[in-house]
């Protein structure tokens, strides 16, 4: 949803990119917030546990990291663009303090963004080997020297296709401007209730990106032998093998962006 009122915070966490500029800015923002009577948290564990607003100083990667710290907590994130990419860190560096003034005065709004839950099943094992959440995308992709992937893809239990490609991206609307866009996926309105399934360099011209409702489960089964990795929101990848199955579905949790 768009335009939700942003609650006035008492405890503000700061997460920043480890550069000189962002580190210096974090110090100045800390002083500014304390001068306005706010408790400031800079330890990441405390930010994830206690902050009722998180200020991110960096790019999209830093914001994704901050969202992972929060887990399912509904603390809004204020993203300040100090990186090379800033689709989700929307506030320019020069507008930090006017924007903070709006938040502290209770005049800011926030956007509610979909997250996806991901479960990796090894072979026929019923229990998941991995359970996680993403804000941008789930990526199954071959290595540089690996042969193409063959991924049996199902939606709501029904067979869709077997993608023969360098991989497949399952992206949220927020992630539609990230890797999915580079793979010729569509731009999707950020609060739309939809999920993108986009093949990476498909080997068949008829296999194109799909947009499906976000209330159905997506399953991708690796059916051939090749070197493949599962990557979640750009974090270090996990190798998967033939017979492994990745389940993706809507998470009950949301990310709130100021």
Shape, principal axes of CA atoms: elongated
Helix count, per DSSP? 5
What percentage of residues falls in helices of 4 or more residues? 10-25%
The SSE string, one letter per element, is EEHEHEHEEHEEEEEEHEEEEEE
Unreliable stretches (pLDDT < 50, length at least 5) are none
Beta-strand percentage?
35-45%
Task: Please describe the structure with a list of short key phrases separated by commas or semicolons.
single chain; 258 residues; alpha+beta; 7-stranded antiparallel sheet
What does this structure look like?
Strands 1, 7, 8, 10, 11, 15 and 18 form a seven-stranded antiparallel beta sheet that branches. α2 packs across α3 (60-70). This protein has helices spanning 20-35, 44-50, 60-70, 96-104, 179-182, and strands spanning 4-5, 11-16, 39-41, 53-58, 77-81, 91-92, 109-121, 130-134, 137-142, 149-155, 158-165, 167-171, 194-200, 210-213, 218-222, 228-232, 238-240, 245-257. The chain is elongated, with a radius of gyration of 19 Å. The longest helix is centred in the N-terminal third of the chain and has 16 residues, at 20-35. The mean pLDDT is 94. With 258 residues, the protein is α+β, with helices and mostly antiparallel strands. The two termini are 12 Å apart. A hairpin with a 2-residue loop joins β10 and β11 (158-165). 18% of the residues lie in helices and 41% in strands.
